[in-house]
Write a structure and sequence with these properties.
Length: 402
């Protein structure tokens, strides 16, 4: 049975969590069986990126599409809402939707694997048996945005997004034969909102990077996409309420990630002791001097790739419980509920202890979140859900330890 894989997030470059999970899924699948990949370009996708993707997946037939333009795009973001409503999609999902891709899928038969929330837009009108791999229960995360709205206008917009997101998600789930999520907590959210549990959980994982540690002393890092609102809200709350005592104690902080604008850079750089690095292709060089990392996150969903990436580089993490969702308890992951408590936990941890926790952080990823484990969990889950045929006894996938 032909396998058709859809991703609305182009997986190259690997500059944030979404493309990391997408590419890891695609490369794992390619080791087992042939499939067709249907993928939507990002705004910054180039011909070089497309060549790189095909080189990374030499046995895969790759079809690349542009998202369908908005008819009223000259009005800016507000011009997108009417057309998104007509298509019964949240505006951000409609922004990743390709009409040509949908038409091509309607001519296919077999099995479909949809990676990410926006890929649910392609279920309607097709003859494929769909599995939906979700990194986020939209009904839960959209309601978080409503509760965190900072103004009346933002609250009205957030309520609209929450309502249309829940309708879209409910409609797509009705057409999905099976669903996977990244954590047990996400499966519980799915059940709470829709009365349906995930067929299996598939925690996000990260490739193990080159291991290099040269702690500089009293140096912290933050890692995340600046254009993901929960990341920025959490960071600003930490800088306002948790950073002053750390700065007074001589700490410095580097901020690393994609999606940085000039306005955000200027705002964040106004805090003493904070260096805004933005996107860095080689994280090893900027994470090696870090004594620890801070993950101040009070909204979001699932296993956070930023947390796993930091741990894989041997950086102990001080996080809110949400920032460490799905990560087993470990001395290398210290939890606190508020910015002030995060700050106090860092100040109360001796430098020697932080140094000793570096290999513990690395070992946590090696034990639970490697690409090998991801592939084994993926195949096991898809087989149990009936998406893939069971691997023959004695095959390397069947025998992989999970």
């Amino acid at each position: 049975m032909t396998l058709h894989v859809v991703s609305t997030f182009f997986p190259v470059p690997q500059d944030r969590g979404d493309p990391v999970r997408v590419l890891m899924t695609l490369q794992a699948l390619a080791t087992r069986r042939p499939f067709e990949l249907f993928v939507v370009r990002r705004k910054n996708t180039t011909a070089k990126h497309e060549r790189q993707l095909r080189e990374l997946l030499p046995s895969v037939e790759v079809s690349v599409y542009d998202p369908a333009p908005y008819a009223l795009d000259w009005f800016g973001p507000l011009g997108r809402y009417p057309q998104a409503a007509v298509h019964r999609m949240p505006p951000w999902v409609r922004s990743r939707y390709s009409r040509d891709l949908h038409v091509d899928l309607k001519a296919r038969t077999g099995v479909g694997l949809a990676i990410g929330e926006a890929a649910g837009a392609y279920f309607r009108g097709t003859r494929l048996r769909w599995h939906w791999d979700k990194a986020n229960v939209l009904a839960a995360s959209a309601r978080q945005d409503v509760s965190q709205a900072e103004s009346l206008a933002h609250r009205v917009r957030a309520r609209y997004i929450a309502e249309v997101s829940e309708r879209f998600e409910r409609s797509a789930m009705a057409l999905a034969s099976s669903i996977s999520v990244t954590s047990q907590a996400e499966s519980q959210r799915l059940h709470r909102h829709y009365g349906r549990v995930a067929d299996f959980t598939l925690p996000s994982c990260v490739p193990l990077p080159r291991y290099s540690r040269e702690p500089a002393g009293r140096h912290l890092v933050w890692l995340g996409s600046f254009d993901f609102r929960p990341n920025l809200l959490g960071l600003r709350a930490f800088l306002e309420h948790g950073w002053p005592p750390l700065r007074a104690a001589g700490f410095s902080l580097s901020l690393i990630g994609s999606g940085l604008t000039d306005g955000i850079r200027a705002d964040l750089a106004g805090h003493a002791g904070v260096t805004v690095l933005g996107f860095v292709a080689d994280l090893t060089s900027v994470l090696a001097p870090a004594d620890a990392a801070v993950v101040p996150l009070w909204s979001g969903a699932g296993v956070k790739l930023k947390t796993l990436t930091l741990l894989a580089h041997g950086v102990p993490v001080f996080s809110t419980p949400l920032g460490a969702e799905g990560v087993p308890p470990s001395p290398a992951v210290r939890l606190a509920d508020t910015p002030e408590e995060l700050s106090g936990s860092i100040l109360g941890t001796p430098a020697q202890l932080l140094t000793s926790l570096s290999p513990v952080a690395r070992q946590l990823v090696e034990a639970h979140f490697t690409d090998k484990r991801f592939a084994a969990n993926l195949f096991d889950g898809l087989e149990r859900a009936g998406v893939l045929p069971a691997a023959p006894a004695g095959s390397p996938h069947r025998d992989s330890a999970v």
